[in-house]
Design goal:
The structure holds two protein chains of two kinds. Chain A is an alpha/beta fold. Chain A contains four helices and five strands; from the N terminus they run ββαβαβαβα. Chain A has a five-stranded mixed beta sheet, with helices on both faces. The longest helix of chain A is centred in the first third of the chain and has 18 residues. The radius of gyration of chain A is 13 Å and the shape is globular. The mean pLDDT of chain A is 87. By secondary structure, chain B is of the alpha/beta class. Chain B is 63% helix and 10% strand. A five-stranded mixed beta sheet of chain B has the order 1-2-3-4-5, sandwiched between helices. In chain B, β2, α7 and β3 form a beta-alpha-beta unit. In chain B, α2 crosses α3 and α2 runs antiparallel to α5. The mean pLDDT of chain B is 84. The chains are: A alpha/beta, B alpha/beta. Chain A: This is Anti-sigma factor antagonist.
């Protein structure tokens, strides 16, 4: 099974989703990320979904879950690079991802997280 | 086989071709009232008559979908398309075909095969109508699309600030286009602030508000911030009366106020900016 790599940059973790998300992959990512946040003591998580062009409610919920897990572990989550079509789909699905921070690209996401402290 | 139902009308038309064509052109020119040059009309009708007579002579029968009529159909398609695009009325277009009946009666005479020939011409007339309508529909669809394009400009007001001035009524189709265009511009220009100016929107009802809210939530998901500006007093009253909640979305009375807010949020220092440009 494919695993999505989690990169550590300073005290941030970068998750760049480049493949089609299967339910299994997503579950593994949640688990890996939780462990990585604890082991690295990261303060922020950036999830880059630039390459994602199809979303469903499952993925929408996954993003919310990951954000909640990170918050419990005292790390803030920023979702970056969402495409217009994806944003429209999520709105139509009624998922406004309340409580998740968003940014246009990875650079702005990093600036947003570092500006918070 | 099918040729005999036309009797010798086809041969006689061939023999009288010039005078028949002359009479036909005369009738058609009368109805068009000089909106086409004689030479243009002459060529159109000559080609059409020639193709029709050849089709009849080679056993076209009364079925217009038959192979011998291919050229006639092609010519008619072109003729009615052109007429539709040039703004001729349906009557003026159809007269072009139906006048042939009168021209034949006047020059060749209503003989044995005339009834069958008349049926064929009726069919041709119907075909003309069909194509004319289709061409007009195409024109209308194109115009609607162009209008949609025209009506949704996204302008850059400042580095990282784009504005979307909305004018007219906002229905679902237009709201969809507006939404996609704004979001795409945010990505293309990397802008973090968008101002939706509704000064030109004639009325705001719950549906329009719904569309605006959706656009703003979608922009937020992408990491951009939206401000609504240009809310006129009456519109503000309507919004409150309808119980529409904009929540934590910033609303400003004028575009100027919205721009100021957007610039201050993006943390621009005017002194440095102007110094950079040597002002």
């Amino acid at each position: 099974m494919e695993r999505i790599p989690i990169l550590k940059i300073g005290d941030l973790l970068l998750v760049s989703i480049q493949v089609d998300l299967q339910d299994q992959t997503v579950m593994a990512l949640e688990e890996d990320l939780a462990q990585k946040i604890v082991s690295s003591g990261a303060r922020g998580v950036i999830i880059d979904i630039t390459a994602l062009d199809i979303v469903d409610s499952f993925i929408g919920r996954m993003l919310a879950t990951i954000a909640s897990i990170s918050r419990v572990l005292d790390a803030e989550t920023v979702v970056v690079g969402m495409r217009p079509a994806v944003a429209i789909t999520l709105v139509e699905l009624g998922l406004s991802l309340d409580g998740i921070k968003t940014a246009l690209d990875v650079e702005r996401g990093m600036r947003l997280l570092s500006g918070r402290r | 086989m099918a040729a005999e139902i036309f009797g010798n009308v086809v041969e006689r038309c061939r023999a009288e071709e010039e005078s028949l064509l002359g009479r036909w052109r005369e009738i058609v020119a009368e109805s068009l009232r000089g909106r086409m040059t004689g030479a243009e009309l002459d060529k159109e009708l000559r080609d059409l008559l020639d193709a029709l007579l050849s089709a009849l002579a080679t056993g076209g029968g009364t079925d217009l979908n038959a192979e011998p009529y291919a050229e006639v159909r092609a010519l008619l398609v072109e003729l009615s398309r052109n007429r539709a695009h040039q703004g001729f009325s349906p009557r003026e277009t159809a007269v072009g075909v139906y006048a042939l009946k009168r021209a034949i009666r006047d020059t060749v005479g209503a003989e044995a095969g005339f009834a069958a020939l008349s049926d064929v011409i009726d069919e041709l007339g119907l075909l003309t109508f069909e194509i004319y309508t289709k061409a007009r529909e195409e024109v209308i669809t194109n115009q609607a699309e162009q209008l949609l394009e025209l009506a949704t400009p996204v302008v850059k007001l400042w580095h990282g600030v784009v504005a979307l001035p909305l004018v007219g009524t906002l229905d679902s189709a237009r709201a969809q286009v507006v939404m996609e265009k704004l979001l795409q511009t945010l990505v293309d220009t990397g802008s973090e602030h968008a101002i939706i100016d509704i000064t030109g929107v004639s009325a705001v009802d719950t549906q329009v508000a719904q569309h605006l809210l959706k656009t703003i939530v979608a922009a937020r998901l992408m990491g951009a911030d939206c401000i609504i500006s240009g809310i006129r007093p009456q519109i503000a009253q309507t919004i409150v009366a309808l119980g529409i909640e904009f929540g934590d979305i910033a609303t400003k009375a004028t575009l100027a106020d919205a721009l100021m807010l957007a610039i201050s949020r993006s943390g621009v220092d005017f002194g440095t900016e102007m110094a950079k440009r040597g002002l």
